[in-house]
Automatic annotation (TrEMBL), chains A, B:
Coiled coil: none annotated. One of its GO terms (molecular function) is metal ion binding. It comes from Dentiscutata erythropus. It comes from the Eukaryota. Belongs to the peptidase M20A family. This is 24098_t:CDS:1. The keyword Cytoplasm does not apply. The keyword Metal-binding applies. Keywords: Hydrolase, Metal-binding, Protease. PROSITE patterns: ARGE_DAPE_CPG2_2. It holds the Pfam family Peptidase_M20. Residues 183-341 form the Peptidase M20 dimerisation domain.
Length: 451, 451
């Protein structure tokens, strides 16, 4: 049973100290990007650089309490006033509407400072901290989390040994008004398909019509991968896609999302589906295939009557449960080679899978999610949206695979925070309510019956 | 009637003076590229540059003789020893096998010096020059003959007024041993097809599967233009292709050409046809369509999970008689728009024809060709191959259209001379026999009955 009185006291403390918390976020935003230095691992130019430290911390060690691992990152995207910011990106300001504007305010300094404020609020309010907390804050998230996976694997049985569940606050609400919990991400398989013909680029006047053109072959192959309405044509690839259950479909009906938001995000109305539900399902729970481009063909402005000798097409497939990257690779390779054989070309083909990442999905009925959902109801007086995302957050899968524990994505910011964009912001209310949410979530965990 | 004795004397004179002629070619090769200078027309950077002069000259003015215009160019492709030449490109050498190696030896200084030697040989041998000769030697051929078309149009009724036929020596034998006359060139229509969707490039994870992707649309359109075996699929485009007559087909059987030469030129065996005749017919007398590349998609090495917002495909069609660029443009635009409509995409398309050039074909039974053919038989003791080419030599059409006279392409060099490549050469025998050929050609013209 959650001690409601204690929580009310906690909320009051958070409200009373919110200006201090904002001040701390301002200080955090003002800290320049950590510069990699000295001897560590190789950077792009082959220079040895020391990676920014991964900060591990433990708060509490009571064998009778659950242990929750929270992850965040203190590195941020680059930002310059000249990029078009309305204020200096590393001097956080608060607008009259209560938006805290600055690089990293939402991604991801707000959440990590929020966790620290949450601990302090318990101390100030003299309330017992409900769980053992472990933190893992890294500084390479915006650069592929280099070094993190190795550390997590190495420490899985040591520092991370007693962790019961993981909470990551590094994504966003679907819209602007309703909180969400995120329980799924798509995976990816990335491919290169090279078609080789002549030994060198040729003049299309002299040779056009007499040689098998690699570009024509590649275009025909590419046209057999996906339809203009997004249906993947590769034999067998859709077979492993989890069926949409009634319960899951039902869940989509309550989500806070409108096509007009999507249209303003993509700056056009060129969406495939006319309704929100199918749109979100195709972003989250169905695979997609994107043709990224072609290397080796003429790609500059202007015109050149070249007949390219070798062209390399690049495409990727977003994976969803229960697709397996290895199985998808087999199917893609077989399909491309079969279709190529049908072209009757004397050119040669090679298919390469560059990398594969599994889709991630968590059980949203796990106590970790139930606690978070209850906490949302306490703070926001509504049930959270249960969302997934179309892209990937690799650390999520890393934690789940290395620790074999439930992972929850619990966002603090809104869908319009503009992470990676100019004028990134975090609403003061999201920040303050978010600190309360973190507290309520930990108290809900402590009172969970289910293990 | 040709005066055979006079011709024999001419040949002897040419043979006796051949070392002088080689020396003159060496001097011509050594003359550096003419540098554009001062005020003339705009170059690429918007600077005013004076174009290299177009040299017009008249030799003879006898109203009882035919007037023949000969065209050549004195500018050459750039060349550096570091490009891989075995000798300094502007210091012409003669190899033990009798190859005159140097930049421009074959393209096109050999032929233009050859015409001048031909005039001098007549003087030395004290033989009456059989025609009035007009020369037009330009210095911008390797840069699109800028300024030439304007001059030809302006002078059509003045300097070029009395011209009866045109002879251009700026191409090559089909192979290495048999001379040819060239009577046809393909034309070209060049196109850009742009597909626009979102207002900016998107992340394929977040948006893949929910928006109509411009790249997918373009790939589908491109796949409907041409088959991997080179068949153009655009409705109506093949309708105007002249039918292959028995006589024409027969002509292909005597041509000196082998697939193995083609294979070594393209450095692969990826030719569509297994025989020489179909191969040459598809180079010369059937249209072809080449997909050159795509602007706006990801074209660099490596990988990027981008969903491109706007992609522009570039392709061109080589035209043959009786295709008309304007008609082809209409058909291409209609076809692309019809096929795009079938895709059911919300993206938008735009089609642009960048330029169109008509195919060129001359009547190989005209006295200009008969004279050249007879001259070849005199010098080489065989009938010349009657060839066409797959690319275009724009000046050919310019002369034909402006002067409305028969144009003959009469090559001096062999198919392996390597114009534009390293170690460009002209065989001494081609040079010396070429000078005799020019003479015999002019004498044959003088004795022609047909007008």
């Amino acid at each position: 049973m959650v001690n409601d009185t204690a929580l009310e006291t906690l909320y009051k403390t958070v409200d009373q100290n919110q200006d201090d918390y904002v001040e701390r976020l301002r200080e955090a935003v003002a800290i320049p990007r950590y510069e990699a230095r000295d001897i560590g691992c190789h950077d792009m130019d082959g220079v040895n650089l020391q990676l920014p430290p991964i900060i591990l911390g433990t708060y509490g060690n009571d064998p009778n309490k659950k242990t929750i691992l929270v992850y965040g990152h203190y590195d941020v995207q680059p930002a310059l006033l000249e990029d078009g910011w309305d204020s200096k990106p590393f001097d956080m300001i608060e607008t009259p509407k209560g938006q805290l504007v600055g690089r990293g305010a939402s991604d991801d300094k707000g959440p990590i400072i929020g966790w620290l404020n949450c601990i302090e609020a318990h101390q100030n309010a003299d309330i017992e901290f409900p769980v053992n907390l472990k933190i893992c804050f890294e500084g390479m998230e915006e650069n592929g989390s280099e070094g993190l996976e190795e550390l997590i694997s190495k420490e899985a049985d040591k520092y991370f040994k007693d962790v019961d569940a993981v909470c990551i606050s590094d994504n966003y609400w679907l819209g602007m008004t309703k909180p969400c919990l995120t329980y799924g991400l798509r995976g990816i398989c990335a491919y290169k398909v090279a078609i080789s013909g002549p030994g060198k680029d040729l003049h299309s006047g002299v040779f056009g019509g007499t040689v098998h053109e690699p570009m024509t072959d590649l275009i025909h192959l590419f046209s057999k991968l996906v339809t203009p309405s997004g249906k993947i044509l590769i034999t067998g690839v859709n077979d492993d896609v989890a069926l949409l259950t009634d319960a899951e479909n039902q869940m989509y009906k309550s989500l806070e999302f409108s096509l007009s938001e999507l249209h303003s995000a993509i700056e056009s109305k060129t969406t495939i589906f006319d309704n929100e539900i199918e749109t979100l399902q195709h972003r989250w729970r169905y695979p997609s295939l994107t043709l990224h481009g072609i290397e080796g063909a003429f790609s500059s402005p202007g015109f050149k009557t070249v007949l390219p000798a070798k062209v390399t097409g690049k495409f990727s497939i977003r994976l969803v449960p229960n697709m397996d990257p290895n199985r998808v690779n087999e199917l893609v390779e077989k399909y491309l080679k079969d279709e190529f054989a049908k072209l009757g070309s004397k050119n040669t083909i090679s298919v390469e899978c560059l990398h594969g990442a599994k889709p991630w999905i968590a059980n949203p009925n796990h106590w970790n999610y139930v606690a978070a959902s209850n906490a949302v109801e306490r703070i926001f007086k509504c049930k959270p949206d249960l969302t997934r995302e179309g892209g990937s957050i690799p650390v999520t899968l890393t934690f789940q695979d290395a620790l074999n524990k439930n992972v929850l994505l619990l966002p603090m910011g809104r869908g319009d925070d503009g992470a990676h964009s100019i004028n990134e912001k975090l609403d003061r209310s999201n920040y303050v309510q978010g600190i309360k949410l973190f507290g309520a979530y930990l108290h809900e965990i402590a009172s969970c019956k289910d293990e």
